[in-house]
């Protein structure tokens, strides 16, 4: 009798790290058993054993020969397939599969990078720098985090061990962790299923390391600084660095609590930066950063059907900043010296319960806390800033920084999902509830005092004491149907709710019409496992950060006081007081009717082919278009309001546009010694709305700018010339990264990025008091920044006879020409026109030609050397 043969179609391969799913920390394995004639064999026992922990799972193939393992923890697995029909008389067949193949079920654009890949590449110390190695994920030169598929950096969501660590207030990246704490990173750029969502950018999912059956002790240290770097090109209004040092050390320990059943992992990594900067008139001043990153995990296999995992991690951070004002002379150093406290702690408890062979239940409870405080670094620095404007050509500042800002944010999460396997269908449904809380405390009482003449002083007072929330339930239902051996259809729907709660505790703004259909098709032509064609349609909504709610739904007091003498003198009494807003007043107490959430639609088409066992090629197309945004605008009467552009109360301005179209060509090569990822992306980002981050109006530091308040369309005059190439448009991006392991213990890794420049515009000013641009010519037609390239190399040498010890040498930005990556785009310094005037009137009222127009404001980083040492005892390199 001919021996049966076995053909495995693998989603998460045996003996390989398991791909992740965003907002999850596990993967799956799918296979099939066929006889020599290609007929399915039912009731074959398949087992998967985690090589690190010894845990084993067993399943049976169904009537079509399919078997699958679900909710497998990330790791390396060995498989075994045993025929249940004893008459054949075969021994157990051990199956080992290469990790490198086509995933026959996935339609997702993105990739998963395991420790074995990224630890050989020259990246920054934090895991988030790994993301920019992937196609359609570009590091921004504009001040926001990495941009994914045409979206701005604060449209991404970040998850670590199931915890959403994205900043609650402004949507920035959350918790920092070194890559030594990380087991795998996955990025979903688009085309994903209904169970994932709440972002118009990408989903970045991180799984931290777990303990194994081997005790593993690790330590590491890295050092760099100005003595190991080329001189950076000077930038106007940026302080000159005299000397800097950056170093961090870390230690980790993991192992079994009970072998084959319970494990632990713990790690601690303090990081320090010391920089001496030259503050004109006051000599060298010390800036510093102290960050204390930690991670811990307990993993328990309570039974063959139940896994539990408890994770905790964080990054408490303190900074001392030297930040002088622009275009002013300091009488004392105190107004330029700040202290910041930021970072926080996170925890999650997850469970996975398998109910027979057909049902999987997964649950998660998670907690995220982040601090963001800022105050003057000296005793005098806590007092008001005196801005002497008696000589308008030479303002002089003295006193302090003006006050204290304290923000504490929280996110509590509960999630429950169920997967039901019914023949050729995998039905999955679940719900998630997030409650985000922002406690905003701002005391500038007074914040600054402006002296206009010897007998005229105006003091400004701002006080905020408020707590706002977002109660955000979610629900999804989806079905993955294997229609044939070659055709798989995924269809589902997702719903996300938004309920913005004001300082009174009442829901002041619900946004509940947020239905998101998703459909994806996978077809496998030719020889199974060698070709794949995918097509998807998806709708996505963005989970709102709470910055806009903190402005509209929380009372804050603003008043000006006029004095004929310095108000800081004892007994000073105001001549008059103007209350602009009472601290108990809330701007928006009635809900905006039919408010739509920030959303977009997307279609993708892809082709993937295994050219050989070591080489995979892809071609993908993606098109995204904005459906609606939420933005702050000034009405024709000068009143600030929020809503959907072009709808209802915003009908006096057009609907926003943003379109992203891209073609991605990529290839991936893996062998026992080498790995290589290369890609080319041709794209266009066009419209009149850049997104939640607006570099054109100061990014996240210009006045009150931030998500849902980007200030590029405060008034109707800004509509003119507003549509064009958006600031993060890059026509061509070429990337390559990889590594090679030599026999003598040397591993060489490298990365290359070449990208065309970004569009430039010509701005005038709209006199709002903020950085509010007027487009003097069509957006994006004032040229481009130059194309840039960047090369970095990592060399690692394993010391013989010292267990797992390596010397690491990073050569970052090797040979970098330090080209300019951004320019001053304001042709004028101000406007004399009324803010609500026509475009023609405001454009004609521009005053003060800006001498820095067209001058660089940022350059590529200089060549830098970083040296490190990594030591490991116990279970191997990872």
The number of distinct helices, counting runs of at least 4 residues, comes to 3
Strand content: over 45%
User: Could you list the spans in which at least 5 consecutive residues all have pLDDT below 50?
Assistant: 1-22, 84-98
| Average pLDDT reading | 87
Summarize the biggest pleated sheet: 31 strands, mixed
Overall 3D form? globular
**What is the number of beta strands?**
52
Helix content: under 10%
- Cα-atom radius of gyration: 29 Å
Structural class: mainly beta
The CA-CA distance between the termini, in Å, is: 45 Å
Give a description of the structure.
The protein is mainly β. Helix content is 2%, strand content 53%. The chain has three helices and 52 strands. It is globular. It starts with 25 loop residues before the first strand and ends in a 5-residue tail after the last strand.
Search tags:
about 900 residues; mainly beta; 31-stranded mixed β-sheet; five-stranded mixed β-sheet; 52 strands; disordered N terminus
Structure summary:
By secondary structure, the protein is mainly β.
Q: How is the secondary structure organized here?
A:
Blueprint lengths: L25 E7 L12 E6 L5 E5 L5 E8 L3 E6 L10 E3 L13 E6 H4 L18 E2 L8 E2 L8 E4 L2 E2 L17 E9 L12 E6 L7 E10 L14 E19 L3 E18 L3 E21 L2 E9 L2 E6 L6 E2 L6 E19 L3 E18 L8 E4 L7 E4 L4 E19 L2 E29 L2 E27 L4 E10 L1 E4 L5 E5 L3 E9 L7 E11 L5 H6 L3 E8 L12 E6 L17 E12 L4 E14 L1 E5 L5 E5 L13 E13 L3 E14 L36 E2 L6 E10 L4 E10 L7 E3 L7 E3 L12 E11 L5 E9 L7 E4 L4 E4 L7 H6 L1 E4 L6 E4 L4 E10 L5
Parallel strand pairs: 10-13, 20-24, 23-26
Antiparallel strand pairs: 1-4, 2-3, 2-5, 5-6, 7-12, 8-9, 10-11, 12-13, 14-15, 14-52, 15-16, 16-17, 17-18, 17-19, 18-21, 19-21, 21-22, 22-25, 23-24, 25-26, 26-27, 27-28, 27-29, 27-33, 28-31, 29-30, 31-32, 32-35, 33-34, 35-36, 36-39, 37-38, 39-40, 40-41, 40-42, 42-43, 43-46, 44-45, 46-47, 47-52, ...
């Amino acid at each position: 009798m001919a021996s049966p043969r076995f053909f495995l179609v693998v989603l998460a391969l045996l003996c390989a790290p398991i791909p992740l799913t965003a907002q999850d920390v596990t993967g799956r394995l799918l296979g099939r058993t066929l006889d020599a004639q290609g007929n399915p064999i039912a009731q074959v026992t398949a087992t998967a054993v985690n090589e690190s922990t010894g845990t084993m799972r067993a399943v049976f193939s169904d009537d079509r020969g399919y078997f699958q393992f679900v909710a497998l923890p990330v790791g390396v697995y060995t498989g075994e397939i045993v025929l249940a029909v004893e008459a054949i008389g075969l021994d157990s067949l051990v199956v080992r599969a290469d990790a490198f193949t086509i995933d026959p079920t996935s339609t997702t654009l993105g990739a998963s990078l395991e420790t074995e890949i990224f630890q050989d590449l020259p990246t920054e110390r934090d895991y988030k720098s790994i993301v920019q190695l992937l196609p359609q994920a570009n590091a921004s030169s504009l001040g926001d985090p990495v941009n994914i598929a045409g979206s701005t950096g604060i449209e991404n969501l970040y998850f670590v061990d199931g915890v959403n660590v994205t900043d609650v207030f402004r949507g920035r990246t959350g918790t920092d962790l070194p890559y030594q704490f990380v087991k795998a990173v996955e990025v979903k750029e688009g085309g994903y299923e209904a169970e994932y969502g709440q972002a118009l950018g990408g989903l970045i999912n991180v799984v931290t390391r777990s303990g194994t059956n081997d005790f593993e002790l690790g330590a590491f240290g890295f050092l760099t600084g100005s003595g190991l770097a080329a001189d950076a090109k000077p930038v106007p209004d940026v302080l000159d660095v005299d000397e800097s040092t950056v170093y961090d050390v870390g230690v980790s320990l993991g192992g079994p609590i009970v072998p084959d059943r319970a494990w632990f992992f713990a790690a601690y990594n303090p990081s320090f930066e010391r920089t001496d900067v030259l503050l004109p008139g006051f000599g060298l001043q010390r800036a510093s950063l102290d960050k204390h990153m930690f991670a811990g995990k307990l993993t328990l296999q309570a039974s063959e059907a139940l896994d539990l995992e408890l994770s905790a991690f964080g990054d408490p951070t303190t900074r001392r900043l030297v930040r002088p004002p622009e275009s002013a002379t300091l009488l004392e150093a105190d107004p330029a010296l700040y202290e910041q406290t930021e970072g926080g702690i996170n925890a999650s408890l997850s469970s996975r319960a398998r109910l027979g062979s057909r049902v999987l239940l997964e649950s998660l409870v998670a907690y995220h806390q982040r601090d963001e405080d800022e105050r003057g670094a000296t005793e005098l620095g806590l007092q008001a800033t005196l801005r002497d404007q008696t000589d308008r050509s030479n303002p002089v500042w003295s006193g302090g920084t003006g006050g204290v800002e304290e923000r504490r944010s929280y996110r509590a999460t509960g999630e429950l999902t169920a997967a039901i396997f019914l023949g050729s269908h995998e039905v999955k449904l679940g719900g998630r509830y997030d409650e985000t809380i922002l406690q905003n405390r701002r005391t500038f009482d007074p914040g600054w005092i402006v002296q206009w003449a010897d007998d005229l002083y105006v003091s400004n007072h701002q006080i905020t004491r408020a707590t706002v929330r977002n109660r955000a339930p979610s629900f999804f239902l989806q079905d993955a149907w294997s229609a044939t051996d070659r055709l798989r259809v995924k269809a589902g729907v997702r719903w996300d709710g938004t309920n913005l709660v004001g300082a009174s505790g009442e829901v002041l703004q619900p946004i509940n019409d947020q239905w998101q259909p998703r459909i994806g098709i996978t077809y496998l032509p030719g020889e199974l496992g060698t070709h794949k064609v995918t097509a998807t349609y998806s709708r996505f909504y963005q989970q709102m950060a709470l910055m806009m709610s903190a402005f509209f739904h929380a009372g804050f007091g603003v008043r000006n006081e006029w004095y004929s003498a310095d108000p800081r003198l004892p007994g000073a009494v105001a001549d008059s007081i103007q209350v602009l807003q009472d601290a108990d007043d809330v701007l928006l107490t009635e809900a905006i009717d039919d408010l739509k959430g920030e959303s977009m639609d997307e279609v993708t088409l892809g082709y993937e082919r295994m050219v050989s066992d070591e080489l995979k090629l892809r071609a993908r197309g993606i098109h995204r278009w904005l459906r609606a945004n939420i933005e702050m605008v000034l009405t024709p009467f000068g009143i600030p309001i929020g809503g959907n552009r072009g709808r209802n109360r915003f009908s006096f301005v057009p609907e926003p546009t943003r379109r992203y179209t891209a073609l991605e060509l990529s290839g991936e090569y893996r062998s026992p010694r080498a790995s290589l990822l290369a890609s080319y992306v041709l794209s266009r980002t066009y419209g009149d709305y850049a997104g939640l981050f607006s570099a054109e109006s100061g990014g996240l530091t210009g006045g009150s700018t931030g998500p849902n308040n980007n200030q590029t369309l405060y008034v109707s005059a800004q509509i003119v010339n507003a549509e064009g190439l958006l600031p993060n448009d890059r026509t061509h991006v070429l990337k390559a990264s990889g590594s090679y392991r030599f026999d003598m213990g040397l591993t060489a890794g490298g990365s290359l990025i070449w990208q065309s420049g970004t569009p430039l515009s010509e701005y005038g000013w709209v006199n709002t008091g903020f950085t509010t641009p007027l487009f003097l010519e069509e957006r994006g037609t004032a040229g481009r920044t130059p194309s840039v390239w960047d090369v970095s190399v990592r060399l690692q040498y394993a010391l013989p006879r010292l267990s797992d010890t390596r010397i690491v040498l990073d050569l970052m930005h090797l040979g970098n020409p330090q080209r300019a990556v951004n320019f001053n785009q304001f042709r004028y310094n101000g406007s004399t026109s009324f803010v609500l005037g026509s475009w023609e009137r405001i454009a004609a009222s521009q005053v003060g030609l800006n001498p820095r127009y067209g001058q660089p404001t940022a350059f590529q980083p200089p060549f830098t050397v970083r040296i490190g040492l990594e030591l490991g005892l116990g279970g191997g390199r990872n």
